[in-house]
Amino acid sequence: MIRAYKFLLRPTVRQAQALAEMLRDHCSLYNGALQERRDAYQHVSKTTVKYGAQSAQLKEIRAFDPEHQGRWSFSSQQATLRRLDKAFAAFFRRVKSGDTPGYPRFRGVRWFDTVDFPRDGDGCRWDSTPHDPTTRVRFQGVGHVKVNQHRPVAGHIKTVSVKHEGRKWFVVLTAEQEQPEPLPATGSVAGIDLGIANFLADSNGEFVPNPRHRRKAAAKLDAAQQALSRFPRCKATGRTANHQRAVEKVAKLHGKVRRQRLDHAHKTALGLVRAHDVIAHEDLKIRNMSKAPAPKADPDQRGAFLPNGAAAKAGLNTSINDAGWGVFLTILHAKAESAGREVIAVNPRNTSRACPECGHTAKKNRPTQEKFHCVACGHHAHADTVGAINVLRAGLVRRDANPA
Q1: Minimal CA–CA distance to 269: which of 257, 258, 281, 259?
Q2: How far is CA 45 from CA 91, 118, 222, in A?
Q3: Distances (CA, A) of 359 to 190, 281, 393
Q4: Least CB-packed of 100, 159, 254, 365 within 10 Å?
């Protein structure tokens, strides 16, 4: 199995400058390759330039510009071109499937924050000695950078990436490991129902409160955003010193909310994996759930629109994104794989409307957000608990129908 590790870098001032230059030059390579593809499609009879042709030009590019392109790792530049190739592959896939295409865009320096090294030892070298606090990682053109390694790395290092977040630099490793020993069986199974009022409810009647990290930080974030809007932008460079400090303050607050959300997701997923052998959850289409409603044109007045509930939906979308369901489910699946647990995704259709006692399904079974009262048999319970029970039953049926 593949596991990722993320460590804080401690570069010197000169090394931080070199890392910033590396990001800038890789961003320039990415944008240049994108421009070449655009020009080829628009001016040369809609010709599509592939990765192989652009990778073959790297030697000439490095020889022509040794100061900016020739000093960095050849394999990392190939990885940057592969990133662009994946972006175009995803674009054509969305076009074919009828989704919103999303043509690949040019990247500003502040939006290009990662450089990948496909193989340890090719342009980079992870130098870690067990129980040695002076761990370092070497990058071509930068040197040996100190690493704050807070936990040991197990397995064979496959790839190395350097990432810039705010004023901090991180190194991200992927290591190939043997499948760990599974946790002891507990004999317990559970279904979970994700929500807004409560982060989740399980089939045993227990609830995990929704921490609402974004809402708790809303006052500080709003004040920081208002302060940012008051600082003018410099026409020459785009950012004054005060504007830059305001931008960093907003980014710092958003970073704290993101870390809090990740911490909560890790702890909640770990508790579920330790307690249950089988976990069933709804197969939620979160991107579709958080879409803004389509505008409704007024047929009686040209250029006017009818009310479509966009304001109320915006509040719901904010709450869905603040809960972080997608991040939580990704972490839950990863931890379950490491622990030898089974996670089953089921269709969420009518899971909150079907009575777990008699099976009657009706919209009226759920009169309010929290209450469930079956109109056929009179069974009443918390609506989220009922949903979790139905999710568990659907998961067990699917598991029995598709044995491993």
Answers
A1: 281
A2: 20, 34, 49
A3: 19, 19, 12
A4: 100
Task: Kindly list the domain boundaries of the chain, sorted by start residue.
Answer: 2-176, 189-401
Task: Determine contact, residues 49/65, Cβ cutoff 8 Å.
Answer: no
Give the CA-trace dihedral at 270, 271, 275, 278, to 10 degrees.
Answer: -60
Contact criterion met (CB below 8 Å) for 202 and 189:
no
Question: How many C-beta atoms lie closer than 10 Å to residue 252's C-beta?
Answer: 12
Exposure letters 325-354 (e unless 16+ CB within 10 A, then b)? bebbbebbbbbbbbbebebbbbebeebbbb
What's the angle, vertex CA 154, arms to CA 148 and CA 159, rounded to 5?
75
**Rounded CA gap, 320 and 214, in Å?**
11
Measured CA to CA, the distance from residue 131 to residue 41 in angstroms comes to: 54
- Write down the pTM of the prediction: 0.85
How far apart are the C-alpha atoms of 253 and 226, rounded to whole Å?
A: 14
Instruction: Assess contact for 324 and 195: CB atoms under 8 A.
Output: no
- pLDDT tens-digit map of 100-124: 888 999 998 888 999 999 999 999 9
pLDDT digits 0-9 by tens, 136-146? 999 999 999 99
Dihedral sign (CA 277, 4, 121, 137): negative
